Amino acid sequence: MVSTAAEIAASVRAGQLDPVQVTKEALDRIAAADGVVGAFRRVRSAEALEEAAAVAARPDLASLPLAGVPVAVKDVMAIAGEYASHGSLAGSSSPVEEDGVIAARLRAAGAVLVGLTRVPELCVWPMSDTPDGIARNPWDPTYASGGSSGGSAAAVAAGLVPLAHGTDGMGSVRLPAAMCGLVGLKPGAGELSEGGWFGMSVHGPLATTVEDAALLYSVLAGDPSLASVPSPAAVRIGMSTTVPLLHTPVPRELVSAVSQAAGLLASAGHPVSPAAPRYPATMVLGMTARWLAGPAEQARDFDFPRFQRRTRAHVRAGRLLSRAGVIRSSTRDRWVARAAEFFESHDVLMTPTLSHWPVKAGRWHERRWLTNVLPSTRLAGFTGQWNFAGYPAITVPVGRSARSGLPTSVQLVGRPGEESLLLGLAAQLESANPWPRTARS
Q1: Which residues contact 195 (CB under 8 A, 6 or more apart)?
Q2: Interatomic CA distance for residues 280 and 272, integer angstroms
Q3: Which of 5, 65, 160, 395 is the most buried (most CB within 10 A)?
């Protein structure tokens, strides 16, 4: 089994591991398994080995937080010498000359960027397939690995790399993390805001351990202090398994995971009680409008006729909503006020991450827009509202389905600025209920 990122970095800093050898082993794992998993759009084999050699020669090697760690990067980031496809054939394929902020921070920390991971076109969907491949769930490759950070989740859950970068606009880190049995953190709105979807999209880590998630989070945020995971004192946890507003049925095993996690956190000294925010009816309209209009704004830089047909329909709908003026700050303000009201009497909200099981893996990009929308909205009932509010949230594995073998998980939501509290609670769950780190465990 692949070592954790923290273990690799510590051994490289101590001179016990060679970054080039670590990278070779990661590339060998990718070569052996990615034909099935489909995690990567582009594997940077030669470039990664050169980067690893450069890391080994750095005079500051002994202080690098990600020294020699192979990291997968979502195919939306600017990496010098590469282009970000955003899962589309309609954009530019000209390599950029300079790293963006995320790639620059990863390199500065000593990470080796081994490849760009598969995403759905414009990162709209919770399934990550493109004309040249399908990102599959390593626990059962007949299922999708999620989206839009599905390739990143598949790469980590398959043990190809210990860490991956993702972005989350409506659940795009948490949903694939839940489907693939990983820790996935969506930071609150702020420094890690990705800029897309009217501020709803943020950068976040996918990892097999809480320690690794905190480590990558600290590097992405440019704040080393965030790598420290606290041991939280007692906090008030509200627990809900009802899909906000829609009240659609949630599979029994996904509900049971919340009950199990509630028992574990109660045993750790946290008061847990049934509770949920007073979700305003306008919340669904507000976040859905941004899910449509955000990609429509992004599409201005693409060749519209070359989009997949589901994307063309999505962009057309988004443009109509933008012209209709439905993107209003008042809608978000009303929801933020209700969320703040809930967090006056509770410190954390716990829900399932998924409101339904993952869909089967397939060529979803060849299907109609509505055929993609229906299963997408069915499984993402608990996530997008926290992007809309700008609150941090984390997915934590709990167990596996007795029927399908797929992972189960919970979502923890906290107040703005309390990412470290969420990581601390996740660490308590990890300590009380260790999970298999990868599908190969």
Answers
A1: 201
A2: 24
A3: 395
Tell which residue, 409, 393, 317, 305, has the closest CA to residue 354.
409
Which residue of the set 74, 88, 149, 355 is catalytic?
74
Per the residue annotation, which of 88, 145, 148, 218 is the catalytic one?
148
Catalytic residue among 172, 201, 355, 409: 172
pLDDT band at 1 (very low <50, low <70, confident <90, very high): low
Among 348, 306, 327, CA closest to 90: 306
Tell me the per-residue pLDDT of 15-52, one tens digit each, with 9 for 90 and over.
Answer: 999 999 999 999 999 999 999 999 999 999 999 999 99
Secondary structure in 3-state letters for 172-234: CCHHHHHHHCCEEEECCCCCCECCCHHHCCEEEEEECCHHHHHHHHHHHHCCHHHHCCCCCCC
On whether the CB atoms of residues 276 and 242 are closer than 8 A, the answer is yes
The number of angstroms, rounded, from the C-alpha of 310 to the middle of its chain's C-alpha atoms is: 23
Is 172 tagged catalytic? Answer: yes
pTM of the model: 0.98
Q: Which CATH architecture has domain 5-227?
A: Alpha-Beta Complex (3.90)
Homologous superfamily in CATH for domain 237-281+327-432: Amidase signature (AS) domain (3.90.1300.10)
Domain(s) of CATH 3.90.1300.10: residues in the chain:
5-227, 237-281+327-432
Are 295 and 122 in contact by the 8 Å Cβ rule? The answer is yes
Q: Which residues contact 362 (CB under 8 A, 6 or more apart)?
A: 127, 129, 134, 144
In Å, how far are 127, 226, 424 from 223, measured between CA atoms? 32, 6, 17
Encode burial over 151-162: b for 16+ CB neighbours within 10 A, e otherwise.
bbbbbbbbbbbb
pLDDT tens-digit series, residues 307-363: 999 999 999 999 999 999 999 999 999 999 999 999 999 999 999 999 999 999 999
d(CA 330, CA 310): 30
pLDDT single digits (tens) 251-304: 999 999 999 999 999 999 999 999 999 999 999 999 999 999 999 999 999 999
Contacts of residue 429, Cβ cutoff 8 Å, sequence gap at least 6: 261, 264, 265, 396, 398, 410
The answer to whether 125 and 147 are in contact (CB under 8 A) is yes
The pLDDT tens digits of the residues spanning 75-86 come to 999 999 999 999
